[in-house]
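User: For my dataset I need records formatted as: sequence, then structure tokens, nothing else. Please produce one.
Assistant:
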Amino acid sequence: MSQAERRRYLRAALNIFLNEDISTGSLLTRAMDIGEGGVRYTKPAGAFQRDSQDILLEFSLPGDDLPIRARGRVVRDRLDESTHSSSVVFTSLGARSAERIRNYVISRKRAELFESMRQQHLSPTAVTA
């Protein structure tokens, strides 16, 4: 089963700062993508070690200044020589926050679809009637 087949929610690219709070402190990270069910983000390699897979996240979506606070569980950590990537499943997310994330993802996916259609239409190989 592929990663996409396991996902229940649509995901969209995201490029924002996100705070990961753990028992030993807080770290500013960079979000890569998000869905109603979770988020993936990166931080510098060796930034800190977690005592637990349970974390608290805080972030604001583009164009929305109201912060979202969510509890999550780290389900994957990937470390290379320069970055540490974490995938988190939300374990506690308010209904209004989930709706805001869902609306963001839908608007991003819609924009991606329209851009793809526009590029296809402008392509020199596009069939004209």
